[in-house]
Amino acid sequence: MSSYRVGLLVPSSNTTMETEVPEVLRRVAATTGDRFTFHSSRMRMKTVSESELAAMNADADRAAVELADASVDVMAYACLVAIMAQGRGAHRDIENRLTKTSADAGAPVDVVSSAGALVAGLHHIGARKVSLVTPYLKPLTARVVDYIEGEGIEVQDAISLEVDDNLAVGRLDQGQLPEIARRLDTRGADAVVLSACVQMPSLDAIPAAEAVVDLPVVTAATATSWQVLSALEAYAPVPGTGALFRG
């Protein structure tokens, strides 16, 4: 049994990252006996707009330095669209930048991101074509689609729920997600991204959504959890948590 400190870099208005990722790791801990604690640093963002997302990215170094003071074992930058809105491949630059920032602060640590985790997770399960659901306005969803396609994964269809208030995104009813997923065009798709946003609740809806679409389901939160666990070498499969946790 091992003990790990998990650092979360989150938007100031985020209310879901600090519930769903800890819940996934709690399920893993129940299997392995490992212990995880969670430590957050926040960056100001209330409206999911390009200007606020860019400002949040600029503030990420300050948040990483503060989180480094807690001597965490891994950091996860938990705002997928903030990175994807910066253009193709941005997760590599931001992860490398924050890794250097943390090292310069005296705390070398792996830095992962929800954006990088989603594309890595889709590649891990062999998904070459996906359909997805986002809470974003359509122009930002288009940026997400372009980003994913820039990573070599075709997007067959995307549904935008068009909510720009980040607190409102966290209040969306995940019980509606299976029926929303049913409306996706999934012809030829290898997987469904049920929530391309760590703020949009989705974890409890995964089993029902997989039954509806008859395809593997991944979410930004489960991908981030998988990437965090992989960085810690603490991964274990757990039921009811989607395609990345089937072993």
From TrEMBL:
The modification S-(2-succinyl)cysteine is found at residue 79. It comes from Streptomyces dengpaensis. It catalyses: maleate = fumarate. The gene is maiA. Keywords: Isomerase. InterPro entries: Iso_Racemase_Enz_sf, MaiA/AMDase, Maleate_isomerase. The active site is at residues 79, 197. The keyword GTP-binding does not apply. It holds the Pfam family Amdase. This is Maleate isomerase.
